[in-house]
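Example record used in the benchmark description.
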Amino acid sequence: MSSLDVRTRTVSDLHEVDTVVFFDQELPELVAERAALAVPGARELNLDPFTVTTPSGSWTLALAGDTITIKPGETGVAMVRLEDDEVAKMIDDRLTPMTLVSSARLRMERGQLGDFLNWWVVLRSLIDDRPVFTKGSIELRGAAGHELDVNRSFTPDDSDSDMAEFLAVAGFLHLSGWFEPREMDAISRDMDAAFPTYTPDDGRSWWAETSAGEHRAVRLQRFEEHSPTATRLLDDDRLLRIGSLTGDDYLPRRSVEALEKPIGVVKGISDLIWHKDCSLGMHSYNCCGITVGISVTAADAASGQLAVVPGTHRALVQPAFYRPLWGLPIRDLPTQVGDLTVHCSCTMHMSHPPVTSERRVLYTGFALAPRDGTPVEDALELRKVREAAYKNVSQAPSPVVAGTST
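Model output (structure tokens):
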């Protein structure tokens, strides 16, 4: 069976980082050893020299022929200002440029966020010993060499082996007719009853404002406490089947969130732009988790459907924004009531804002069991770091990048 476990770190790998030692000694050594992994992708990204300035000093990274140079000074076309602890967390994969964006701590002195994201990909390549993605380096083909039909949907009658192969190659699934409409009707009624029990400051819900002046809950956490039907689904073999598709040891998350997608959101997080669920860090500790969306109502292009970029869970690319230069297709995922969407935590995806009708969906999923003796409490603490950063996304103002709001 195929594996989706790409973890390379545990909490025992966390270490003290000296900014000067990293840029003066460790990074040049990594370039000498691994430049061939990073340079082809760096060329494709057409990178300009980039400066990282810290309290301990400033260094400029530049692409030079078949290598990457690291020189003291602030000569980069783009420049970011980082604290030493932010450098350490970035090296340990506990922070990304998008973490700084989400918490309104990104300080670009010159250039744009995209400059930082592109050089972050290069740094991850060198630190993690992974190739930067280049166009054509990932094929959407099955084990027998056949080209995958990325528009395929699966029903309960399809084989686990076919679904497992598709998930491993494409990083997502569309499962048609998985749950009964009557079950979704019951969940929708439970959502109606649950909404009045949530408040903006309860720490268990996300809220948004609409163009009509409404202040509405858009994400209800711990929804299983309000819905007997949702609780039963968490133990249902139809759902647990998804977690057993691969040869990995997946644990069900045992909780579910209920989302309502209003029309005309003008403030707050409801519909997310292109991103990976590891956009804020922790990829090498947690991926791939499996996220399952349960369609309480139908979704299409006008009512907030999900979209994915097949194959991106296998690609070291910037963890936000879609780029046509990747040469990878976009797959929209329209759903009927009771359909499921499944995606890996590092598959690029987004949700369209609804324009004609609102959408209701449940989200739950599966996490990889802790590995190499990592205590469960440590694994949960890593998850808390990630969830806290996501919470800041809904609260932080837009960051200032190169003098303009983004």
